[in-house]
Amino acid sequence: MQIRYMHAVICLGFVAGCAAVQLESGAQQVRIVTSEPHGCEYLGEVTGNQGNFFTGTYTSNANLETGARNDMKNQAHKVGANTIQMLTNRAGQTGALGQGSGGMQETNVTYTGVAYKCPPAH
């Protein structure tokens, strides 16, 4: 009984690790821009990340990117920001040597931006 329970917990954890990080309540209002917004209060840098060497192999590129973006928006919302100026985006890759493929696969994505509190748009 114990082994079956542990196996189920491990499987659920594995599947959850492959899903994109979810947006927290209120973070969906945070917008991402590519240039510095004017008339906004600087709140600091924020970083969002999704994936690692293990779960990233089994997570789609779309979920890695969406999860990293959602994580960054969640971090910005926690500090009171409503706008992020994107600074960098990086995708990590690890080699896949199984079956002689020798290919590369995206396993993690990290976004870094500057968080701002901007006045409401009219």
Q: Top keywords for this entry?
A:
122 residues; alpha+beta; Translation Initiation Factor IF3; four-stranded mixed β-sheet; 2 helices; 29% helix
Ends apart, CA distance between termini: 60 Å
- The assigned structural class equals alpha+beta
CATH topology, by name, is Translation Initiation Factor IF3
Rg for CA atoms: 18 Å
| Strand segment tally | 4
Oligomer: single chain
Overall geometry comes to elongated
Strand content: 25-35%
Mean pLDDT: 80
Please name the fourth-level CATH homologous superfamily: Hypothetical protein apc22750. Chain B
Explain what this protein looks like in three dimensions.
This protein is α+β, with helices and mostly antiparallel strands and 122 residues long. It has a single domain, classed as Hypothetical protein apc22750. Chain B (Translation Initiation Factor IF3, 2-Layer Sandwich). The chain contains two helices and four strands. It has a four-stranded mixed beta sheet. A hairpin with a 6-residue loop joins strand 3 (83-96) and strand 4 (103-117). The longest helix has 18 residues, at 61-78. The chain is elongated. The model is unreliable at 7-15 and 96-100 (pLDDT under 50).
